[in-house]
Amino acid sequence: MYKSLLYSLFFLPLFFFSCGSNSNSDETLIEQDSIVIPPPVIEYGFTLDSFQVIRDTIQPNWTMSHMFAPYGVSQWYINQAADFAADSTVGLKYVKEGTPFIVLAALGDTAKKAQYCIYPKNIVEYVVFDFRDSVMVELGSKPNEIHEQILSGEIIKNSNLTFALDQQLHDINMTGEMAEYIAGVFAWTIDFFRLHPGDEFKVIYTEKSVEGTPYSVGGITSAWFKHQGHEFYAFQYALDSARTQIGFFNEEGKEMRRPFLMAPVQYSRISSGFTMRRFHPVQNRWKAHLGTDYAAPHGTPIMSTANGTVIAASYTSGNGNYVKVKHDDTYTTQYLHMSGFAPGIKQGVYVEQGQTIGYVGSTGLATGPHVCYRFWKNGQQIDHRAEKFPTSVPMVDSLLPSYLEYIKPIKARIDSMPVTPYMTEEAEDVINI
Ligand SMILES: [Zn+2]
């Protein structure tokens, strides 16, 4: 209320001025070049031309007394101002060394008594101390602009996502925010601790800025990531008109936050569950069974239950042919007794959720064709069926056609975006010269 009053008071002369100078198309306006009216300087909503403007900077160990006392503010007023500023809505308890502030005194006042003092709290917010009749303290905010932006980059050897982002955002806070947004969207798709040279990404996002200076990432609206030659798309979509259910979905409408597949084989029955103690049919003794057995016909495809890297595709007398997949630093899965591996499956290969990695068999210690599925969380073998995975927002079938229509132009835009190459330090030096 207070701020809008200020605006209306000080913008009034500006408004009249604008009317005259903007009517360039009006041919009756003559001698335009001979009239020179400097535009009013407006800062924090104040027309500075209407005041004596004193610019000062907070020195080491300053309190509000140091700030205001030289400008004729009584100690009684200063104490009140400090109390009001510490209030939760303003939230200014201490003034920070090196912060520039402005004191506004009346024109012609030789004593330079402060009418207002403006202290920037951060890049967006500022505190207005009004000492005219009494003490008023208000938190103001510069107009926040939100723009859509794009960025892209690549991962090179001995580098990571943060390095690649930092090259383009040039702001440590925004780089951190962006890395978190990207890692959040692709958390169940890509292991960001194992990015590879040649991995690439493209992002469409919103950027918050004040007075033309970007300071924060509003959020990602769509993204693409190429990891080890596999391409992943993510599009933000609201499932209801009130936009309370917003999620990220891939180019087929599948949710990005998808947990592990419930089973590594499609048609099967559980022949033996996870237990710390069971009677082993082959070894003929009591033994813990740290896996879940899915009985299925010989040759049934076995799928990786989530995206990850094959860390073993091997044979032991107990496991038979088995594949072990590391999904991230938390989860690893293993698939035993395969009759054979799927083409191309070997150590180091990246596999997607649902990709066939081998076929059901009975190699190793097995009585009949089944896959023994083992699940590690933080190095501990656990029952995957008892594990609680993050909840997700599933796409409703009836929404799929409109979703696919909605993402069509966005996907085309992402596809046409070139990937900004990683700039080596040498190349950066050349540009800096
Ligand atoms: Zn088993």
Structure explained in plain terms:
- The structure is a single chain.
- This protein has helices spanning 2-22, 64-68, 75-86, 161-169, 172-185, 400-416, 425-432; strands at 42-43, 46-47, 51-57, 100-106, 114-120, 125-130, 136-141, 144-154, 200-210, 213-227, 230-238, 246-249, 269-272, 275-280, 285-289, 292-295, 301-303, 308-316, 320-326, 331-341, 350-351, 356-360, 370-377, 380-381.
- With 433 residues, the protein is an alpha+beta fold.
- The strands form five sheets. Strands 13, 16, 17, 18, 19, 20, 21, 22, 23 and 24 form a ten-stranded antiparallel beta sheet that branches. Strands 3-4-5-6-7 form a five-stranded antiparallel beta sheet, covered by helices on one side. A five-stranded antiparallel beta sheet has the order 8-9-10-11-12.
- β14 and β15 (285-289) form a beta hairpin.
- The longest helix has 21 residues, at 2-22.
- The chain starts with a helix and ends with a helix.
- Mean pLDDT is 86; it is low at 1-31.
- Bound molecules: zinc ion (ZN).
- Zinc ion binds at residues 272, 289, 291, 293, 372.
Q: What is the topology?
A:
Layout: H1 2-22, E1 42-43, E2 46-47, E3 51-57, H2 64-68, H3 75-86, E4 100-106, E5 114-120, E6 125-130, E7 136-141, E8 144-154, H4 161-169, H5 172-185, E9 200-210, E10 213-227, E11 230-238, E12 246-249, E13 269-272, E14 275-280, E15 285-289, E16 292-295, E17 301-303, E18 308-316, E19 320-326, E20 331-341, E21 350-351, E22 356-360, E23 370-377, E24 380-381, H6 400-416, H7 425-432
Antiparallel strand pairs: 1-2, 3-4, 4-5, 5-6, 6-7, 8-9, 9-10, 10-11, 11-12, 13-16, 14-15, 16-23, 17-22, 18-19, 18-21, 19-20, 20-22, 20-23, 23-24
